[in-house]
Amino acid sequence: MIRYSHTNLIAKDVPLMIAFYRDVLGCRSIGQTRDLSGDWIDRLTGIPGAHIFGEHLALPGFASGGPTLEIFGYDTVVSNTAYGVNASGFCHLAFAVDDVNQALQDVLAHGGGQIGELVENRYADGRILTAVYACDPEGNILELQNWRAA
């Protein structure tokens, strides 16, 4: 059996990022906080003296036991300088929202940013996509999207 488990986000400011994803994007606490250290963590991460802390948040739209967003921090966080919607590797988290413009305003009001323009596109099957790329307070890319029938 294979089942998707979680996506990990390493944060510089763990409490800020947990609050952002909870308050702005509807993730919810499921009581799975972590404060991990010791030999097994050192061996798992390959980082001597590693200390990992944070929380798993349930993603909106999933029942209990669904995939989570794992927001963790380390005592020492290494910066990633390859941000951009065309950067290789994992690029963004996408959230389906009722109102893209309002969701974007919420992101901006909570310290996030906007990348590019809010756009609308009609697909050949008649569905209309409204979408915008944004970012959380630490620059991680988000896609806010809404699909509707024409």
Uncertain ranges: none
Structural class by SSE content: alpha/beta
Topology pattern, helix = H, strand = E: EHEHEEEHEEE
Span between N and C termini? 39 Å
Taken from the alpha-carbon principal axes, the silhouette is: globular
Percent helix among the residues? 10-25%
- How much is the average pLDDT? 89
**How many distinct folded domains?**
2
Question: How are the strands ordered across the major sheet?
Answer: 1-4-3-2
**Number of E-state strands:** 8
Description:
The strands form two sheets. The protein has a four-stranded mixed beta sheet, sandwiched between helices. Strands 5-8-7-6 form a four-stranded mixed beta sheet, with helices on one face. It has 150 residues and is of the alpha/beta class. The protein is globular and about 55 Å long. 18% of the residues lie in helices and 41% in strands. It contains three helices and eight strands; from the N terminus they run βαβαβββαβββ. It has helices at residues 14-23, 39-45, 100-109, and strands at 6-10, 28-37, 51-58, 68-74, 92-96, 113-122, 128-135, 141-148.
Question: What is the fold's blueprint, element by element?
Answer:
Layout: E1 6-10, H1 14-23, E2 28-37, H2 39-45, E3 51-58, E4 68-74, E5 92-96, H3 100-109, E6 113-122, E7 128-135, E8 141-148
Parallel strand pairs: 1-4, 5-8
Antiparallel strand pairs: 2-3, 3-4, 6-7, 7-8
Brief sketch in words of this structure:
This protein is α/β, with parallel strands linked by helices.
